[in-house]
Amino acid sequence: MKKMMKSTKWIALILVIAMQTLSGCAASSSPAPSESSGGAAAETSAAETPASALTPYELNCYFLAPQVKDMQMVQDKLSELLTDRINATVKLNYFWFDSYTEKQRMVIASGESVDIMFVQGFDFNTYVPQKAFLPLDDLLANYGKNVTDNINPLYLLAGTYNDEIYAIPTSKDMFGVGGVVINKELADKYSFDFSNVKEPADFEPMLQTIKENEPGIVPLLSTKGDHTTYFTNNLLAMVSWGISYRKTDASAKLEISAEFPESIEMMKLAEDWYKKGYVNNDVATLQDGMPQKKAQKAFMWAEQLKPGKAEELSAQLGYELIQAYAHTGPYYTSSMDLTNSMLAINRTSGDPERAMMLIDLLFHDKEVKNLLDWGIEGVHYKKVGENQIDYADGVTAETSGYTGLGQWAMGGSQFLDYLWVNESLDKWEKMQAFNDSCLPTPLIGFAYSQDNVKSEAAAVSSIVSTQMEAMASGIVSYDEYWPTVKKQLEDAGVAKVLEDAQQQVDAFVASRK
Q1: How distant, in Å, are the alpha carbons of 276, 325, 477 from that of 199?
Q2: Are the C-beta atoms of residues 492 and 243 closer than 8 Å to each other?
């Protein structure tokens, strides 16, 4: 009976999504959150239990965020708010891209008591089968009303495994458009026109001009070849390390990622740009380009774009930026797009109900959400309008003790976030239209289980993570290097992984018809 009820629930959810996608990604892709700026809102499920009736509890939380000087100050203020809302305090653990994955692995392996953990993509597929996280369906039903009220069903479907929800995605941009962020002063200086860019190769004349005329400026800053990844993001979606399908392919036929013509073209372009000196010399090893970006030593760098991305980064870096897509549409969303920022509740949590209450607050409580995102009003920022902020008096991007965070990685609904003074007041309306414009790929909700090929998948993953970056960075020739890497993948059992993944994909696609 329980299985039948679960199947009925997911059939209903899929029907809702199908009806919504008749006019883009969703008829209402980003519902306006029900906000509360103080106290627990009476209409929320979490508020049905008064804070005073709850036992005090400290929530141990891990976020993808840089180490910032004033984290303790923000933690203390957030604890004050949460004590009022749900009688909880919080311990914030921030680790950035260069260390988060390894820290996450160590924490999960240690059995540390963790309540909320940022997770994304393949890490989700790895840790859910290991039972590192709790299923959330019942917790959502009892304590997550504001989550379900303010999130597109596609997101919840993407965060599932075996028809159970294991993580709550951030409500934000619904798909990844690869492109670049550009120093506007330099772009204006040379009267660059980005309106005619149709593919990544169209950026080359600009890169050449900067190379020839701006000594000390890197034309294209890349960290470990991430520009190749961003520039193929619109075209391909991975289901396992080194295995992908075309986003436009309704049958989702899998192939080795590096053998798609689109991938080959980009890796050869990366090689050409590296040889010409358009890319930083340390592209294969650089893990954090933020110092160069803050110092205005880069003309452009690749990003996953959305409406207002350049303005967000302008506020963080302290100078004006613009953005340009690397491809024209149409654009498609995949599970990897929807699951690149999620919050899970660890199986080791001492109070999963309280953890869900905090996640629920991030979907409706504007004060809690913006404190976590921007810091403390009057210290890190000041209000300059009803929904707009600027740095606090005497504070700059360089001196702020709480800046450089990726608000997309902090969970909840980004539609609650304050806008910076340089941002368009209709940013969230533009984001709504942006989300509505995308088309779903056939594998949303699919999570590949490696149980049948654990050793082979691990070996393939190791090769991909260590060998592919050289080609993505452009420091080696694809034609010369790929045959060696392919032989390593074949010896590791990539054909077996590919066959196993295709069988699961085919079964998933058939089940959704």
Answers
A1: 19, 8, 21
A2: no
Contacts of 20 (CB under 8 A, 6+ apart): 26, 27, 28, 29, 152, 153, 154
Burial degree of 386 (CB within 10 A; 0-12, 13-18, 19+) = exposed
Residues in contact with 136: Cβ distance below 8 Å, sequence separation at least 6, in sequence order: 144, 164, 165, 166, 167, 168, 345, 356
Q: Can the peptide bond before residue 330 be classed as cis, meaning omega within 30 degrees of 0?
A: yes
Q: Tell me: the pLDDT tens digits for 37-62?
A: 443 333 445 546 788 899 999 999 99
Fold of 2-170+337-371+406-440: D-Maltodextrin-Binding Protein; domain 2 (3.40.190)
Identity of the amino acid at 290:
M
DSSP track, 294-337: HTT-EEEEEEEE-TTHHHHHHHHHTS-EEEEESS-S--EE-HHH
pLDDT in tens, 311-359: 989 988 989 999 999 998 888 988 888 999 999 999 999 999 999 999 9
Q: What is the mean pLDDT of residues 74-93?
A: 98
Mean pLDDT across 417-428: 93
Segment 103-118 mean pLDDT: 97
Q: Which residues in the chain are classed under CATH 3.40.190.10?
A: 2-170+337-371+406-440, 176-330+454-513
Token pair, residue 503, equals: 């069988």
- Tokens, residue 378: 């009057």
Q: Give 130's DSSP letter.
A: T
For residues 83 and 75, the answer to whether their CB atoms sit within 8 Å is: no
Predicted local confidence at residue 129, as pLDDT: 87
Structure tokens belonging to residue 32 = 């306006």
d(CA 305, CA 56): 41
451 or 186, greater pLDDT = 186
| Domain 176-330+454-513, CATH class in plain words | alpha beta
Indicate whether this model's pTM tops 0.85: no
Structure tokens that stand for 19 in this block: 């009806």
Tokens 């169209």 found at:
202
Neighbours of 64 (CB within 10 A): 23
Is 470:476 a contact under the CB 8 Å cutoff?
yes
Q: Using 50, 70 and 90 to split pLDDT, how confident is the model at 13?
A: very low
